[in-house]
Design brief:
By secondary structure, this protein is α+β, with helices and mostly antiparallel strands. It has two domains: 3-272 and 469-493, Nucleotidyltransferase, domain 5; 326-467 and 504-552, 2-Layer Sandwich (Nucleotidyltransferase, domain 5). It contains 20 helices and 23 strands. A hairpin with a 5-residue loop joins strand 2 and strand 3. The longest helix has 26 residues, at 405-430. It is globular.
Amino acid sequence: MSVRAFLGLDVGTQSVKGRAIDENGNLLAEASTEYPLYIPQPGWTEQEPAEMWQATCETIRKVVDALQRRDPPAEIAAVCATGQMHTMILLDKNKQPLGRALLWNDGRAAKDAEEGANLLKSKLGERYLIDTICNDFLANWTGAHLFYVRNRAEEFAKGIRNFETERWAQAWEHAVTFVTPRDFIVLQLTGEVAMDMCGGSETSLMDIPNKRWALDAFKVLGIDKLQPPTLYEPGSVIGKVTRQAAEATGLKEGTLVIAGAGDCLAGALAGGVLKVGQVLFTLGTSGVVVAPIGEKPLVDEQLRTQVHYSTVPNVLINMACVNGAGIGLRMFRDVLGDVYKAAAQKFGVDPYDLLTERARQVPPGSHGILFSPYITGDRIVKAPQGRGAWYGLTAFLMEPESGGDACLIRAVLEGVCFAVRDGWEIIRQLLSGVSFEPIRMVGGGARSPFWCQLTADIFGHPVATTTAEDASYGMALLAGVGAGAFSIWEAAERIKIVRVFEPNKTISAFYDLFYHEVYHRHYDRSQRELDAAIERALNSREYAEAVEAWRKA
């Protein structure tokens, strides 16, 4: 007799991951398949929906094969998908994709987003985005990309001819609806055009307090020709795997397909973060802080953070996202880190482990070097087309005792944590009076004890690693919930704390000073102001004490 298994899929920016678990939450099999990311020019990111589906089929087949080889074999009873949030895919009347997907970190719609936000506020009220959408009309979100496509079609109709107007005019002519990547996979599996409630709240087109599409916004933006997808509660059944999908994936025809959630919310479930007072920090390509806020929206008046529905029906979260987190360290590895890649290959280790070990060799503050991590734009500082930088470089870097490249590496790690702290501070203010548990840290960065400790020191708050896997594991849990194997609360209770990193009080005191004196609002400060702020920080009592604590550590 076969074991009952539940499959979670994560349609990510660079690959599709799959994890299958049993009714006790034990991992049975996992697989991953990469697929291409296209960057036609700086600030633009695209993918082919067909390649998403192909990678998904390969991943599922790998998992199914692994389950069949087990003793006893396991059979997937339900599937649930997560994936990159906000990414826009247009569909025609035959449910076929129209052109490439525009991704969550694509900033081409910056001007259109500003125009759209002004339209919504002028036509529907100055507080419409705050009180109804509960989010800004962000350049890299679904709504702005739909508005972008509509505007390019309008330009084409006025005689403006270029690659963008031509391809999007043709797509817009035939467009009838839209989905995100995980919805596209659900469509391929079931034939149903559907979106989970979390997905709706990711678009800037949902009336969040009333849990429905903001059709007045569609009309004002001129995109009301589109029929938005039907919304489903996470954990509910959308449909069943069709015969065609079964042949493509190896899944059994009739397998349940369960409504999921965005990758950050799937990660929250995988980390056991469902209640007010719990916090998740996902450190991957981006850096995201997720905090449940209850059933009523808590909205930052400056719309620097986002409000979404969670995997728990009716429960909302507030989320702060730094687009460029782990990708900053990857940039160093790929552009400046040839020696680390070569050493990693020679000794059979992960190059990231070598990079973080090198960062450990210079003191807190990286000898005054600041890394601004906005290499793919940013939401918190409202810079959709922002750029990153190392700042504070001096000739001292050429001296052996400076640590040289170690300063650049440590500055990347520090800069990411400082940027995410901006979001953490906003969320703490929104949840004033709440006592927070240790922040649960997941993602690739959580595998580095050094980065975990750095996070605790910069946040000034305990950080915990857990038994949690990634977002695909969270969706495997939600697949089990949808199939009736266990409740969502029972799923969350399976996640255990592995290690708690307490802030080093001395080092944390310096980082707190550096954050307030140097990093916070640095994006809008002049070079002269930053120079003076860095000089004050490096000559402070807190810095001298932090260096001494670092030497002893």
